[in-house]
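User: quick one, sequence for these tokens?
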């Protein structure tokens, strides 16, 4: 794939954990800058599972809950704050404006956004877009950089 896009195959939970670990390591290297990551894929593709491993690799030791009903779950870690958004049940993108969405996108913050298309123009532009596609034997992770920070992270990933 191009220099701005990498593809990873996951045939097991361990493969998905390794992908999450490599991405988390790359994100830590970009600190104190913030990072916005969009997670795309159909229902059941593995967005929340990937998020769980990613957040744990950043240093969270407790449970990682799906924010399907709350829209957002915050994780205050030692060096960084992670906001995990799940916009699947969002009825109107303007709700994001009322909850102060712009305040979440800042330095020392990683925002993982599932179902970003439901947020319309109220979300910050992504640094990375991760599209997860189930296959007959696992999943394919397409990781695409959309910013200089994202390109820096993708260029440092093993492929």
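Assistant:
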């Amino acid at each position: 794939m191009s220099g701005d896009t990498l593809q990873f195959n996951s045939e097991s939970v361990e493969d998905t954990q390794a992908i999450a670990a490599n991405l988390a390591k790359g994100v830590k290297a970009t600190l104190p800058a913030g990072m916005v990551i969009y997670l795309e894929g159909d229902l059941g593709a593995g967005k929340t599972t990937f998020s769980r491993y990613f957040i744990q690799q950043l240093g969270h030791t407790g449970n990682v809950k799906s924010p399907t009903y709350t829209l957002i779950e915050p994780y205050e870690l030692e060096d960084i704050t992670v906001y995990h958004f799940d916009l699947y049940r969002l009825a109107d993108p303007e709700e994001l404006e009322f909850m102060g969405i712009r305040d979440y996108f800042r330095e020392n913050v990683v925002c993982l956004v599932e179902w970003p298309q439901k947020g319309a123009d109220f979300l910050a532009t992504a640094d990375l877009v991760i599209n997860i596609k189930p296959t007959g034997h696992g999943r394919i992770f397409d990781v695409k950089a959309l910013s200089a920070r994202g390109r820096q992270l993708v260029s440092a990933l093993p492929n």
